[in-house]
Design a protein that fits this description.
The protein has six helices and six strands, in the order ααββββββαααα. It has helices at about 5-20, 20-35, 115-125, 135-150, 160-170, 170-180, and strands at about 50, 55-60, 65, 75-80, 85, 90.
Length: about 180
């Protein structure tokens, strides 16, 4: 089991997000009408996921799971640049997507699990001071992962979905999480 302090800090961050429903509602309104940030789907490169069948999540409580990597064939993402990201054991809530959007299947916090795991891993590495990547680097890795999954034709594909998720990880709320020292 992952150390209790990190688990509690991650839950506290999640609870603060849920408590800021007004901010989430603003994000939903703005992303739907395109007032927030947008990414160029066509200009975003695609990478490659390895061992998608080896994603193992253990339920901890509602909307909280522990990712347990396969020691023989670990799940990983290879970016277009050649960088390989291999998440290690960690906690995840899937995609931290405002509940108001969960009514659409493509906005489920679990729809794009592989790229959300990579994103959560990079986020955790930042908080553990084990990475020099910037907020924008990690956001762009998520975008690359989204495009990779969408291009596989096994996941819902759409530039509006892509832009809305990109907008979500570009918001002030996301940056507050990034800058948080918990």
């Amino acid at each position: 089991m992952i150390e209790n302090k990190r688990y509690l800090a991650k839950i506290a961050r999640r609870e603060r997000l849920e408590a800021s429903q007004e901010k989430a509602d603003t994000f939903v309104r703005k992303s739907i009408i395109g007032d927030y940030f947008s990414a160029d789907y066509n200009a975003t490169p695609a990478g490659t996921f390895q061992n998608l069948d080896k994603i193992n999540l253990r339920w901890l409580r509602p909307d909280w799971f522990e990712y347990i990597p396969d020691p023989e064939r670990p799940f990983s993402f290879t970016r277009a640049s050649g960088e390989v990201i291999t998440p290690n054991q960690m906690l995840t809530d899937g995609g931290t997507i405002p509940r108001a959007l969960w009514v659409k299947p493509e906005f489920s916090p679990w729809c794009y699990t592989p790229c959300f795991l990579v994103h959560d891993w990079e986020f955790d590495q930042h908080h553990a001071e084990a990475s020099a990547k910037t907020f924008e680097d990690v956001r762009d890795t998520l975008a690359e992962g989204l495009k990779t999954l969408m291009e596989s034709n096994e996941f819902p594909k759409g530039e509006r979905i892509f832009s809305a998720i990109y907008a979500g990880v570009s918001t002030d709320i996301a940056r507050e999480y990034w800058d948080s020292d918990e």
